[in-house]
Amino acid sequence: MKELGVFNQFAKGQAKALKRTNNCVIYTRVSSKEQEQGYSLETQRKACEEYARKNNYTIMGQFGGTYESAKTDERKEFNRMLSFVKRCKEKVTYIIVYSVDRFSRSGANAIYIKDQLRNEGIFLVAVTQPGDASTSSGDFQQNIQIIFSQYDNQLRKEKCMAGVKEALSRGEWCHKAPYGYDEIVVNGKRKIVINEKGKLLQKAFYWKANERITHTLISERLAERGLILDEKRLSGYFRNPFYCGLMAHSALGGSVVEGNHEKMIPREIFLKVNDILSTNKHGYSCHEENEIIPLKGFLKCGHCGEPMRGYIVKAKDIPYYKCNTKGCCNNKSARELHSIFESGLEYLTVAGNEGIKTLMVKQVASTYNNANKEKEDGKEAVKRQITEINKKLERLEERLILEEINFELYTKYSEKFKLEKLEMEKGLLKIPKRVSNLQECIKRALDFASKLPTVWRLLPYKDKQIFQNLLFPEGISFNKKKGECRTTKINSVFLYIAHLVRNVEEIKRGMSKLIFDIPHLVAPAGIEPASKV
């Protein structure tokens, strides 16, 4: 049999040798501060450290030490711990917890995570529930403990939700009061009443209902009155029935109930505002036939400038695009136009190795930072001025208290300073916010730009429309007589990326100067942009 030894390299089913060490990490957690009575973080930590000391384990790190729910495994400290044990240069063999339910209560998902760790030679050790997790019986025991933890969680949730539903049915809101309300106690009972911010938000409802103004204008009006409120949050407030005296909650099973809280607006105003919002929905109606004619409406006639419609030739079952202007006679097979459109996308598609893309990320980031440096400097200067005004207001109050000035002077100058501060804060709102994860955003844009035709082909109709308008904001036009497709504007970000990887000197930036020609019918090796004066 010795002569068969040379063939061992082809054998199957060889067990993977996992390196085992005495290295460990400790993970502690409680769901909330109120639950710390039975499982305090300090108690857990001490118990885990004592267990590691008795077993001569080397502690490589401690994680948790905070309040994290175990219902899901989307926890910052939990995920940081998992990442550490998988990537640590010094092999970690044990994760020590006070009890299995401190690790997770998510049931099957927790078992899956534990099994994945076990396959890598990393074992879960519970101090108060001893057992050898490296054996089949010990692993089975831990699985049962995790399942019971999930079951216990579900029982608690059912009891809690039953109480929530009962309270809601009585008109009592069980959670934190929504924006614009304060919680007060009157004669030992909790009441939810409108605060000063709520009174201004109340005005926003009436402005929207009676004047039909935009969210941007509403936000500016509120800022003039001292309430800084992002316009993007207004829709959420406008759609919350709490403000008209009703309560909606998942525990109510799709119904609403009358609340005991103070009503901010009449129900008529609430419904009127929501009618306005429903008529201003953005998007595109998606019919079945549109899936095969996604350029409908986006494609314009190169003869008369009118949008081209899409239709199906029933006799041949072939999709076409056609100008609807009488006598224009500008039409084309959808398949051929799609091919031409994709060749245009190929031009903007980024090609190159990872080294080139790394340089591109740095270049784009540098360009962005240089372009926004002046704005950032101006923003910091305004913030410093606001800080100085706050100091002046504090000094003014101090002088009033010390009777160095009278109330008339205090009112005069405090109003002046507050107006100055308000104008500065309004200016800050107009300055674009800095991108916090710039390089990650650029990498995603490059990744997106490296597969534009493929992305377009795979998208559903509605998303195709968004995609097309993102890249070519003014659409594209087709001229049958000249046999060409053009656009007068290309998304500056994707055009800039294309500039970095191609020497395209003939393309000029501008709203009306940029002409993007797509050769007709002939399958091109590449897109040849051209500018016309």
Top keywords for this entry?
533 residues; Rossmann fold; Hect, E3 ligase catalytic domain fold; four-stranded parallel beta sheet; alpha/beta; disordered C terminus; four-stranded mixed beta sheet
Describe the structure.
- The C terminus is likely disordered.
- The protein is α/β, with parallel strands linked by helices and 533 residues long.
- Helix 6 packs antiparallel against helix 7 and helix 11 runs antiparallel to helix 12.
- The strands form 5 sheets. It has a 4-stranded parallel beta sheet, sandwiched between helices.
- The protein folds into 4 domains: 134 residues, Resolvase, N-terminal catalytic domain (Rossmann fold); 99 residues, Putative Large Serine Recombinase, Chain B, Domain 2 (Hect, E3 ligase catalytic domain fold), CATH 3.90.1750; 133 residues, no CATH class; 62 residues.
- Strand 13 and strand 14 form a beta hairpin.
- The chain is built from 16 helices and 15 strands.
In short:
This protein is an alpha/beta fold and 533 residues long. It is built from 16 helices and 15 strands. Strand 11 (318-323) and strand 12 (331-333) form a beta hairpin.
Strand content: 5-15%
Structural class: alpha/beta
Q: Count every helix, treating DSSP H or I runs of 4 or more residues as helices.
A: 16
Q: End-to-end span in angstroms? A: 85 Å
How would you summarize the topology of this molecule?
Layout: E1 23-30, H1 41-54, E2 58-67, H2 76-87, E3 94-97, H3 100-103, H4 108-119, E4 123-126, H5 136-169, E5 181-186, E6 189-194, H6 196-211, H7 215-224, H8 234-238, E7 246-248, E8 256-258, H9 267-279, E9 299-301, E10 308-313, E11 318-323, E12 331-333, H10 334-348, H11 354-401, H12 407-430, H13 438-449, H14 452-458, H15 461-471, E13 476-479, E14 484-486, H16 492-501, E15 518-519
Parallel strand pairs: 1-2, 1-3, 3-4, 9-13
Antiparallel strand pairs: 5-6, 7-8, 10-11, 11-12, 13-14, 14-15
Helix pairs in contact: 6-7, 6-9, 11-12, 11-13
